[in-house]
Amino acid sequence: MFRNPPIIGIDIGHHSVKAVVLNPKKGQLELSAFAEIVLPSSVINDQHSVNTPALLSAVRKLKKSLPFNAKTVALALPDSAVISKVIQLDTNLSDEEAEFAVSQALSATSPFPVEELRLDFFPLSSDNFMETATTVPFQVFAARRETIDSRVKALKKAGLNPSVVELQTHALLWLAEYTAERAQEHELWGLVDIGKRCTEFSVKPSGGAAYHREMAFGTELISRPSAGDGVIQKIFTPEPEQAELFTKQLADHLKRQFQLYNSTHPRSPLKGVWLCGGGQYVVFEELLGRLLGLEARWINPFRYFTCSKKLGQIASDSYYGQYAVAAGLAIRGAAQ
């Protein structure tokens, strides 16, 4: 499943850039390095493109903490930056004809001219369709060229080789699948990514499509000390009362999302949710689990990777949930 060379998963966020390096060895994934560069200001604009010079500067700093021979990169786009559609195409179309048909279908619904988009499409599993069917469903993804090219340009200028562009949700689901397999977890778990600006809920029911919802609720809602109160710690730990209130508010948001999920997937109930993102210091997992009525656990994305003794001690000292997307991307890249 896994092939050489080392793979870097790079998560470009509004507030930092994170990288996880995995080295495929003898059918296993070895954690070689992980690092984060905090950004002085966001490098991502409202159209999801990045400030290439600012990102380039951050990636060059990041590279200093990564193995010299790690060049191949898997990166992600926010789900909100990607158009996702399922369309029906004739079964007898050539590749060129299929691409033209996809472009025509997108031109009728895309807010951007098709010429400004990069496309990716593939047929969905036809196991449930009759061989005599004249059409087959295709999954189509599209994103603005500038959204992708601005990221790729910065990485290439830093001497890296971007090989995979994935949806952020899919990166998280790759990590969830990898973790479930190695934890021998056979029941369905979702994944909740708690960020500063928003929280995302993702789950992949068996045999179904990925389910994803985004909530405009994040850790930036917690009041922090002002600049006049002294130097702010890099890791902000709120008062217990603040964390309890935030946990209760998060539970309210998630309950609504779970109700929507259960109404459309009644045969794929959740056993629990893995928590990730930068919110491990502001969410009480036991309280959240009680409020939701299911298990809630912080995920350590590094737990099931092999690594050196020294790095293993470092990686096990914390949940490191903020590296979930980067770790999922590295897993995805290694399976390429």
TrEMBL record:
It comes from the Bacteria. Residues 7-176 form the SHS2 domain. InterPro entries: ATPase_NBD, FtsA/MreB, PilM, SHS2_FtsA. Gene3D superfamilies: 3.30.1490.300, 3.30.420.40. One of its GO terms (biological process) is cell division. NCBIfam families: pilM (TIGR01175). PANTHER family: CELL DIVISION PROTEIN FTSA-RELATED, ETHANOLAMINE UTILIZATION PROTEIN EUTJ. This is Type IV pilus assembly protein PilM. The gene is pilM.
